[in-house]
Amino acid sequence: MPHSPICPAKWRGKGFFIKRDDLLHPFLSGNKARKVQYFQSFSNIKRIISYGSLQSNAMLALAFLAKMKGWEFIYYARINKELLKNPKGNLKEALLFGMQLKDISKAPTLLENRNTLSHTIKDGSTLYIPEGIRCQEAADGIAMLALEIEAWVKQPINIFLPSGTGTTALYLKKSLRFCPLIKEVYTVACVGDSNYLQEQFFSLEPNATLHPKILEPPKRYKFAKPYKELFALWQELKHQTGIVFDLIYDPVGFATIWHHNLLDTNLCYIHQGGLKGNETMIERYKKKFATIS
Ligand SMILES: *Cc1c(COP(=O)(O)O)cnc(C)c1O
Q1: Residue 214: its H or E element
Q2: Which of 19, 140, 166, 279 has the fewest CB atoms below 10 angstroms from its CB?
């Protein structure tokens, strides 16, 4: 995988750096590209099975990976018949890559404990991958991200990235812990609250000193729910930085950065991709707020 660039940016008059993992690839981008890197070298499997939501960025990454490798991809989700009539965004692309969608109620018994599953399961030539690619195997690709940051950094710096499962933030913190120029890896919980995110960290790493520092958002935002102020923030970021961010995680990330004055420190923000998913979020925003154009 080629290195992604780290570029200077300015927002509300303050400078910071952005690691452009969104530029890695149109379908396999951001942290999902990092998280599936380890699986790219697999040769003795025929099928991957995962589960989660119908618009998940992880789903699209796995669909693309499977297509590239010539594997079958079965994805269990709560089926929404309306969505399937006219699939859009991540779902549309994943189906075009050959993803087979099945109802979560028919999930195999191996996935019974799926909510606490934090590693892949290999069963013959089938590989089960936890929701959001939240697993130890993700560490390899994230270590590569850390190496790219280490090769670049010249002055003491803080890192910030918003979290879903927290897998990326956790392994980034772990991989960077011996780099003396990295002061702290900060994150914010976008799925659930800070306690939930901390539990996620513990399920992957029992040693709390290796966990990223969780910052509270200015207010509690429900995951993937449209908020007018977050859309306005996303637009403002686009205008001021010239960069398109993801609509679900990044606005919560930047609201939190502002709330904690992190731009008064030397900061590098990790852009974790997810832009294909914006299509359906923009539609939801337009539906909910007539004034959004
Ligand atoms: C998946 C995703 C995240 C969350 O990553 P985790 O490793 O689950 O914390 C953040 N931002 C974007 C754009 C994503 O697609």
Answers
A1: strand 213-214
A2: 279
